[in-house]
Amino acid sequence: MWLGRFLRGMLWITWQTSQPHSELCDDSYMCQGSEGSLPPNVCGSRFHSYCCPGWKTLPAGNQCIVPICRNSCGDGFCSRPNMCTCGSGQLSPSCGAVQSCNVRCMNGGSCQEDSCSCQKGYTGNHCGQPVCENGCQNGGRCIGPNRCACVYGFTGPQCERDYRTGPCFTQVNNQMCQGQLSGIVCTKTLCCATIGRAWGHPCEMCPAQPHPCRRGFIPNIRSGACQGKTHRHTHTHAVLHLHINTPGWSYKLNK
């Protein structure tokens, strides 16, 4: 749209410069026309010439045919020095103010009154901070709208799934983990859902109320639904026995 207005303006200016020069210059400009020794809108002498005030040349051009307007022409174009031809066709010193912005808006944000209006999924003074509506857990970092970058050992949309493996402990005395099940390495979820009271190295206490399932149940890796289990443990040997009546959920470890 602006290109069309610019081209129409250039055609109008070209037509103007083809008219007798007396129509182009007014009393405020010391212009010399085709009747003199200099081209239109050129001041000075044959030995030292320059564009008359209010005119300039096109880039890489040598004709003074581009008018200069001090005020903004908005949706119009500068048709003669300090005069705009507005979108309605009316001649005026200006065609409305141009909105300016002193801040840079990122990620598709738009500037409104020197502040950024951000697209959905971003926030901050410059819309440079992504938003994760449900947050990122376990040290994860929000790197995009509802997109978390998880630290090693965690996965899921909010880094909520812990797939780290480590030893399982059956006792905790004076904040010390004891009763490690020899030869058993499992996830914290599996340990704490069965006979474990602490897990990992360094040792982490099992929650009083395991999450997302209560003790005796673990989440199905496919559906996320809590599934039941059974376990047995004696002093002489440990039997960690999980049996879930869902395909892909059968786990049995005897020691």
UniProtKB/TrEMBL annotation:
Positions of the EGF-like domain: 128-160
Keyword Secreted: yes
Entry GO terms, CC: extracellular region
Disulphide-bonded residues: 132-142, 150-159
InterPro entries on file: EGF, FBN_EGF_N, Fibrillin_U_N, GAS-SHBG-PROS, TB_dom, TB_dom_sf
Alphabetical UniProt keywords: Disulfide bond, EGF-like domain, Glycoprotein, Repeat, Secreted, Signal
Leader sequence residues: 1-22
TB domain location: 166-209
Compartments in which it is found: Secreted
PROSITE patterns registered for this protein in UniProt: EGF_1, EGF_2, EGF_3, TB
The protein's name: Fibrillin 2b
